[in-house]
Design goal:
Layout lengths: L5 H27 L4 H27 L19 H24 L5 H23 L9 H22 L1
Helix pairs in contact: 1-2, 1-4, 1-5, 2-3, 2-5, 3-4, 4-5
Length: about 170
C-alpha cells in the first residue's frame, strides 16, 4: 500500500469512530436519562467530549492526502455534484454541531434536539464517505457492500468506543 494512502485510511477510520461514538453515547444518554438524569449526564459526558478532538484529527489528517493541502478549501466548490465536497461539508457541520452541543452541555442543558441532529449529521458524513468509494466504479467498491462496510465499521468503532467510556 502506498504511504500517501495512510492519511486517507486514518481519516476514514477516525471519522467513523467519531460518528459512531457520538451516536452510541447519545443513545445511551437518552436511555439512561429515563432512570437517572444525573447518571446519564456523568456517564456519557467524557466520551461525548472526546468526539470533537477525534473528528478534528480526522479532518487534519485528510489534508495530508491532498497534493496541495492549502488549497483544500477549493474542494467545497463542487458541492452540488461531488461526494467529496459533501463529506467535507458534513465533517465540518458535525464538528460545528458538536461545538454547539458542548456549549449547551457546559450550561447544564440537555439539548436533546441538538444531540440528535449532531448524530444524524455524523451518520450523513459516513454515508457521504461510502458514496465516494461506491461512485468510483471499481468492482470491489461498487454496490451495497461498501455502504454496509462503512456503516458496520461505524457501529463497531462506536460501540467499542462507547463501552470504553462507559
Amino acid at each position: 500500500m502506498l504511504r500517501k494512502e495512510w492519511p486517507l485510511i486514518t481519516n476514514t477510520i477516525l471519522a467513523q469512530l467519531a460518528a459512531g461514538l457520538f451516536i452510541f453515547l447519545a443513545w445511551d444518554r437518552i436511555v439512561l436519562s429515563r432512570e437517572s438524569l444525573q447518571l446519564a449526564l456523568t456517564s456519557t459526558a467524557q466520551g461525548l467530549a472526546w468526539t470533537g478532538p477525534v473528528i478534528v484529527l480526522a479532518m487534519l489528517l485528510s489534508l495530508f492526502h491532498l497534493g496541495k493541502p492549502f488549497r483544500a478549501y477549493r474542494a467545497m466548490a463542487n458541492l452540488p455534484v461531488s461526494w467529496l465536497s459533501w463529506e467535507i461539508f458534513f465533517s465540518g457541520a458535525f464538528l460545528l454541531l458538536w461545538i454547539i452541543f458542548m456549549v449547551f452541555e457546559s450550561s447544564d442543558s440537555i439539548a436533546l434536539p441538538l444531540m440528535v441532529a449532531a448524530g444524524l449529521v455524523g451518520l450523513l458524513n459516513v454515508i457521504s464517505m461510502s458514496n465516494i468509494y461506491s461512485s468510483t466504479g471499481r468492482p470491489g467498491w461498487k454496490g451495497t457492500g461498501t455502504y454496509l462496510d462503512f456503516l458496520g465499521s461505524t457501529l463497531v468503532f462506536g460501540s467499542v468506543g462507547a463501552a470504553f467510556f462507559l
